[in-house]
Amino acid sequence: MKMSEGVEWAVHSCLNLAWVGPAGAVTATQLAAFYDLPTAYFNKQLQALARAGIVTSTPGPRGGFRLARVPEQITLLDVVRAIEGPTPAFRCTEIRQRGPGAQAPENYLLPCAIAHAMGRAEQAWQQSLADQPIADVDADVARTAPTAAETTRRWFDSQRA
Amino acid sequence: MKMSEGVEWAVHSCLNLAWVGPAGAVTATQLAAFYDLPTAYFNKQLQALARAGIVTSTPGPRGGFRLARVPEQITLLDVVRAIEGPTPAFRCTEIRQRGPGAQAPENYLLPCAIAHAMGRAEQAWQQSLADQPIADVDADVARTAPTAAETTRRWFDSQRA
Q1: Going by C-beta distance under 8 Å and a sequence separation of 6 or more, which residues neighbour residue B96?
Q2: A49 to chain B, minimum CA–CA distance in Å?
């Protein structure tokens, strides 16, 4: 079970946009260049973030991407959902209804207890992601890598100069 | 992000072994036949469960698989780990250390705040799986599909007769 590496790119990019702030728009090329990311593939993630209403893009020579909301109002769940989609990791294929033990359909009106149990765990995972806005991750970066925000902001500013 | 369908097969098979009980050993062929599962691929999952100490197999004409522990002592996390391995779904590739914003290695002694935040969510998922033993799932099946255990037991008994 593996999450797309696009999730790592997307969360980092949201943080970078938070650090640049609403005054400055950042191009997809600049965002990709900051981590040497493959531009075409990264563009897809950016488009997914835009479709999910996490970033907005403005056209034109001074245009680019900005966060669509303040970092307090963008959660890790928003970003993960935008990149990974809403489909749960555990997908019940109803094998209980297959084979020699299969019974009449009216015996399967309630969801499979296994799917229910697995779903409960995914809900705990989602709740934890939903409880962590980008602003909290930012605060944790400030504690663990105190120069990151300023270094990042300065590089993006230099690109727009 | 998708979990292997082997997880569904493995949890159902653990439940089936729980219903058959410790007195009866069940062959891999019988376990696979009960849900029309592809035998070779399913055997790999059974071997993984055996390596993880969740099932034991005895050789010989009356041999087969049994649960290695009572269902109260096998959690969903045990089964998921056996099939999916211990690697987390989110895998930090340290992109923060790449590109023009990269700083000297001594700035990265602490884990990335994003990896930390994603890890916290995976821990919530794992904790929920660890809190749910197969015995609890069994109790939920008894409530939602009351004939399943008896039907299953009878079919496996008929195969050994």
Answers
A1: A12, A35, A145, A148, B102, B108, B112
A2: 17
User: B67 — phi, psi (to 5°)?
Assistant: -65, 140
Could you tell me which residues are beta bridge partners of residue B64? B58
Q: Is B93 on the interface with A (CB under 8 A)?
A: yes
Task: Phi first, then psi: give them for residue B53, nearest 5 degrees.
Answer: 75, 25
Joined together, the tokens standing for residue A20 give 């640049």
Q: Which residues of B touch A103 (CB under 8 A)?
A: 147-148, 151
First CA to last CA distance, chain B? 43
The interface predicted TM-score of the complex, written ipTM, equals 0.95
Residue position matching structure tokens 């071997």? B47
The pTM assigned to this predicted structure is: 0.94
> Could you tell me if B26 and B64 are in contact, meaning their C-beta atoms sit under 8 angstroms apart?
yes
A-B C-beta contacts closer than 8 Å: 185
Q: Cβ separation of A9 and B91 shorter than 8 Å?
A: no
CA gap B47, A16 in Å, rounded: 46
Low-confidence ranges of chain A (pLDDT < 50): none
pLDDT, one tens digit per residue, over A40-78 is 999 999 999 999 999 999 998 889 999 999 999 999 999
User: A91: which DSSP letter?
Assistant: -
CA distance B96 to chain A (A): 7
Q: Say yes or no: B160 contacts chain A, CB-CB below 8 A.
A: no
Closest alpha carbon within chain A to B108: A145
pLDDT mean over B83-101? 94
Token digits for B60?
């010989």
A8:B33 CB<8 A: no
In angstroms, how far is CA A40 from the centroid of its own chain? Answer: 18
pLDDT grade for B60, boundaries at 50, 70 and 90: confident
- Hey, are the CB atoms on B100 and A33 less than 8 Å from each other? yes
